Amino acid sequence: MSSLPKRIIRETERLISDPVPGITATPHEENLRYFDVLLDGPSGSPYENGVFKLELFLPDDYPMAPPMVRFLTKIYHPNIDRLGRICLDVLKNNWSPALQIRTILLSIQALLSSPNPDDPLANEVADEWKNNHDKAIQTAREWTAQYAK
């Protein structure tokens, strides 16, 4: 771990010693900038009882640049496309070096509770979210049961 910047070492140690409830982030032994993430679907959301796999990578210029994060588990969500890419302001134009891995993962978990179909990455899902909300919620629950168990 000594070749990593102190900030990444501190954040990684904190993720392991003081984990965020419902979120596990484990660095790869061969590349400590690459994390396997397990994120519990928030209660009260259509993703409840699901466990979603994500990958998180810290680029060389982290923390000046945001981490790269994507869902590996298939999910029906207006702000997450079929490749698992996430439309979230703090991963793009609202990134700040003051943010940390844990705050990003909490923001992603919060996005599952509060989808934003007005800023979609998956347009068809967003359209259904706006025009047939009950069916979109049902589909999200079905996908969670099928892919995130």
Keywords, please?
149 residues, alpha+beta, 33% helix, 15% strand, single chain, 4 strands, globular, 4 helices, Ubiquitin Conjugating Enzyme
Q: Can you describe this structure?
A:
This protein is α+β, with helices and mostly antiparallel strands and 149 residues long. It has a single domain (6-147), classed as Ubiquitin Conjugating Enzyme (Roll). It is built from four helices and four strands, in the order H-E-E-E-E-H-H-H. Strands 1-2-3-4 form a four-stranded antiparallel beta sheet. Helix 3 crosses helix 4. The longest helix is centred in the last third of the chain and has 15 residues, at 133-147. The chain starts with 5 loop residues before the first helix and ends with a helix. The mean pLDDT is 95. Keywords: ATP-binding, Nucleotide-binding, Transferase, Ubl conjugation pathway. One of its GO terms (molecular function) is ATP binding. It comes from Pichia kluyveri (Yeast). Belongs to the ubiquitin-conjugating enzyme family. Residues 3-149 form the UBC core domain.
Count of discrete alpha- or pi-helical segments spanning 4 or more residues: 4
Helix content: 25-40%
Mean pLDDT: 95
- Return the CATH class: Alpha Beta
Largest sheet: 4 strands, antiparallel
Number of beta-strand segments: 4
Order of helices and strands: HEEEEHHH
Shape: globular
In CATH terms, the superfamily is Ubiquitin Conjugating Enzyme
CATH architecture: Roll
The structural class is: alpha+beta
Strand content: 15-25%
Give the strand line-up of the largest sheet. 1-2-3-4
Could you tell me the CATH topology label.
Ubiquitin Conjugating Enzyme
Number of domains: 1
Spatial extent as radius of gyration: 16 Å
The end-to-end span amounts to 33 Å
